[in-house]
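Re: that chain you flagged

S.,

Sorry for the slow reply, it's been a week of failed gels. I finally had a moment to sit down with the sequence you sent. For the record, here it is as I used it:
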Amino acid sequence: MNATLIKKYNIPGPRYTSYPTVPFWDEAQFSKHKWIETFKTSFKESNADQGISLYIHLPFCESLCTFCACHKHITKRHSVEDKYIDTILKEWQLYLDLMSSKPIVKEIHLGGGTPTFFSANNLDRLINGLLKPAILHENYEFSFEGHPNNTTKDQLKALYHLGFTRVSFGIQDYDPKVQHAIHRIQTFEQVEKVTKWSREIGYTSISHDLIFGLPFQTLETITQSIDKTKLLSPDRISFYSYAHVPWVKGVGQRGFNEADLPKGNQKRALYETGKKLLTDLGYKEIGMDHFALETDDLYKAASNKTLHRNFMGYTTNTTQLMIGLGMSAISDSWYGFAQNVKTVKAYEELVESGDIPVFRGHILTNEDLIIRQHILNIMCHMETSWQNECSKFSKLSQVIETLDELINDGIILIENNVLKVPEMAKPFVRNVCMGFDLRLHDSYPETQVFSMTI
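Prediction finished late last night. Pasting the structure tokens below so you have them in one place:
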């Protein structure tokens, strides 16, 4: 890849799991009442047709990984499990009370934190509690994130019997020096064990998460990590760029020195090396940061142009309404976003008082909705168009003018009101989306709030 372009476009920018992105939510115009109204509207429009998605945030971790930017609660006390699950089910009931009919659940994803912090019995109680008042969509898909060091065969069996067919294991890197720096030490043998258990039990899609740009990573260590990954042949691989945002997450991301991080061309070489190794193994690049075998549903969704992206990342399921349950979880009604309070204590107290635990959000304007669709098109399909009147917005001409530089650098092609991102320019997809991001244009932050785009 052109080193000059990397240097030019490697700037702070959003990952676009939403538009507007969280730092540009208009919280002054948001209220819980407005959120509930958008929720009710979306439920009526989409439940019978699409069904709904549930994201469950299980925040507990037994130790702190220094690469992690997620909202988590560090504890070794498993006595916290029961009350937290009780609270999630009570929050679910608060939303059930707002629904005009039984919810049809199409998608459940357990994220964290560490979902496998919870016992098999408690995971069973959680999922059964969520599904008891609901109807299962005929094409439902359930998935969860597992930590290789504490995922047990009982947990895998329990979730599989509840309908889970997808599991994603957080690997990050196999090199001992890198693992020590990020405080995430796990052996290949442990990963191999949980991966084989999953296959034996019947999981049809097993994913491994790898990260490039971690401290002390080199071309040699990234090659070794992918060579080990090859031995287990996961169906999907998420190959994420390390988001170094210590100004947001504080001490958790300062377990190593800045000088220990690969930067610029060095960091990009890690990705290009990893990408070549993965494509040589038969993996196809999907959207941004994702790879899948041709037999996996993620590849099929990308090929069929049914790939979707939301706060859970890329998904094969398109649902207009996603309800986030748990501390810090974000809900999306398409017309609005709402985030729950960020501490376990505040979350449990609000729900116990009968209050939906939302503390901030954003109600999308008509302009937001159009731009959101353009950014979603680009992130999922590497193209968008404004051939129809419904895809145009008041400042479209100004946006197109700002794209001239991207055209001149070969990062996008525009013809007949259709924008396309060529294969070689995929690494710059976040920069392309930034061209449409009017809220970013109007108030570019004076201090860095996003990770680097490349």
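What I noticed first: The chain has 17 helices and 19 strands.

Talk soon,
D.
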